[in-house]
Amino acid sequence: MGELSKLPNIGKVLEKQLNDVGINTIDDLINLGSKETWLKIKEIDDSACLNRLMALEGAIQNIRWHNLSEEDKDNLRDFYNSQK
């Protein structure tokens, strides 16, 4: 496993997906952001869900996704629902 798996919420499977869409470093993830990263993953894995989106944002903030602020969770839910 690489550097991304050192972040909260990023396991082997998600790290591989990140690598598959060209995100190989923590800086890559931070610069692209959770929403754009999730959209890239969604292109290769139609099962990408709201929890994965929240996991990405949590990783960027270096916290477990459960600890995201309610404002962040609501924002991510709105974005996710707009993509259906």
**What class would the helix/strand composition place it in?**
mainly alpha
Helices and strands, in order, run as HHHHH
Q: Quickly give the CATH architecture.
A: Orthogonal Bundle
Estimate the strand proportion: under 5%
Number of domains: 1
Oligomer: single chain
Per CATH, the class reads: Mainly Alpha
Explain how this protein is built.
Helices cover 62% and strands 0% of the residues. It has 84 residues and is mostly helical. The chain has a single domain, classed as DNA polymerase, domain 1. Helix 3 (34-44) packs across helix 4 (50-61). The longest helix has 13 residues, at 70-82. The model has no long low-confidence stretch (mean pLDDT 96).
What is the topological layout?
Layout: H1 12-20, H2 26-32, H3 34-44, H4 50-61, H5 70-82
Brief description of this entry?
The chain has five helices and no strands. It is an all-alpha fold and 84 residues long.
Any descriptors?
single chain; 84 residues; mainly alpha; 0% strand
